[in-house]
Queue: 3 jobs
Job 1
Amino acid sequence: MREYFIKTVRIGFSKWNKADLNFASQLWGEEEVTRFICSTGKFTKEEIANRLNTEIRNDELYHIQYWPIFELSTDELIGCCGIRSYKSEKHSYELGFHLRKKYWGQGYALEAAKAAIDYSFHILNAKKLYAGHHPENKASEKLLKKLGFQFIGKEFYIPTGLYHPLYEMVNRFNYGK
């Protein structure tokens, strides 16, 4: 049984650990998931292990990661959703989410992203959140706009070798300030 530090109606947010290679492989081993996040369109086993280790390191160093998210009713891995530091801007983070294909189109990305945004502004006192998506990923574009992100330009994304649309959300409430 996993521990969840955030819960929504249907989702539990946990933390990646070294024993999660199987879960990481379920998620980042799906070409439908990785086709928009790397130049080759799929991760090798080594790249999956490296991605898992990166998330674990992000938690150890910064207490944030693209956390694994699970369906509360089944304890099945949905994917990941969370934040990472954005460049060198203090109190600014990048929001990201990757869902397994079987969970697409069911509102899980919206539910998870709202929880990660709330956590970022209320718990971490973030001033800004950034998010981007592959230029061909229209579902992510639609979701970011629905969440209230504003388009601010394009940014070169090294893993795909492309310029990705970039969005921003400012904490209008200044929690904790």
Job 2
Amino acid sequence: MAQQDTDQQHAGVLPVDDEGYVIDTEDCEKREAKWRERGTSRPITVVGNPVLHKECKDVTDFGEEFQQLVADMFASQRTAEGVGLAANQIGVDLKVFVYDCPDDEGLRHVGVVCNPKLVELPAEKRRLDDSSEGCLSVPTAYAPLPRPDYAEVTGQDEKGNPIRVRGTGYFARCLQHETDHLYGYLYIDRLSKRERKAALKQMAENEPRYPVVAND
């Protein structure tokens, strides 16, 4: 279905399917490149920086300055070779994340979510996946972390239109991980004390492959 060609189509940036979820798997290369090429890559903030450990502010102004922030986020995500990036990971206290992430069927998803909220799943949909997880803000560290293998997020797109995004497998993990960021949680905050300590030790013993902001 082409964007905006029926009354059922919302006036947002991306088309939606018959159930009202955005179709974020079309023209991924073109859309990501368009954002990234007008952006400037910024260094990544790392664990310990105060902006990562508090709830971010809602996005209320979707103007040109905000559009440039989104472009910078796509550029920064590409530099760091990430699949998702929240605004506070480049030091900006706003509830927005970008993603360029495959799901468990290998489909690539590219998009922007502002003011996200995870939809609480009924018990029958809560199958846990205990795959390993990492974070650009905890560079070089990985640890197994059980999360539901399906996720839904509501929010707004980069123009302020209401959206619903859903994903499975790795993409579901990405949606949960990035939403967590905007409410002040890192994945290591969901680990046991021993596992968290081990992850921070991994980080301390290795050099990140991308520019980071050193904590004072």
Job 3
Amino acid sequence: MSESAAGQSVTVFAIGAILAAIPLTKATIGWPRRHLLLVAIAGLAIANTVTALSENLALTLAARCLGGIVGGLLWALLAGYAVRMVPSHQRGKAMAIAMGGAIVALSVGVPAAAFLAKLVEWRYAFGIMTVLTLALIVWVVAAVPNFPGQPKGSRLPLTRTFRIPGVAPVLFVTLTFVLAHSILYTYIAPFLKPLGMAGQVDAVLLTFGLVSLVSVWVAGALVHRHLRLLMILACVLFATCALLLGIFSGVPSLVYASAALWGLAFGGTSTLLQTAVAEAAGDAGDVAQALLTTGWNVGIAGGGIIGGIVLSGLGASWLSWVTLALLVPALATVLAAHEYGFTKGELGSR
């Protein structure tokens, strides 16, 4: 299949999360948290096993959709789960540690899978994920504490959660920022190919990933006091990366420098956004996290679709300019949301 068509396997995963995150979170909000966590992880094991063994495109896409369904549930679950394990003054750090796993997966997993595909076959990457997921289930049963779900009467309706001051701006920034990221990330291989860097995709991704780990650490250390400043910097750094790629994409050293800026911008973003929406939503945090998960995955799905259209219609060089265009309203929204959403001051003091 074409590169644009292959990118839709990412889109299907995101669509599964979009369709499931909110309704499944609401339907299971009363479940004990560890039981729900184990069900979601088991779903990922099934999805990756089917992907590894499938010889049929439709079955593969169905498996990726299942992965997205349980993945969306996990994203909505994990942030709230993490903050219940710690005192209030450590909420931001707890989110940074918990959600840093997603960044490590992007930082290490994607380059490792790209390298593994060169040596053997991409199916082995999914097979390895199944083995790791089964080990994770054993660890969760042995070590992760359980917490009760929310009583039925305490659950805030979805529409009222969306109207809480500060929630909507955070969701909009999530959508635009992740959409910009996904357009470039999903199609980084065809973007690099005309630059003569087709054999350096894994190296560029590794650069992005290693710097992302630094960003995760910075976000965890500073989110409690400087959430607004960090989110502004993330938008500015990513916009600078897109601009450099648009103007100097023919210079390999600047491509690597841009990947480093991109990683520094993106690594801590999930921590920043999830902390911001949790702080804004208060007791409606689980539902707000489900909304954020949906927005995040709409961005991923939209990146696969829009990036594919740009790649097929305008060419790979336009991917960076479309990315830049999306970051402008994201930055403007962060700057405007100074009273609710991306506010100054310590978390928990508002």
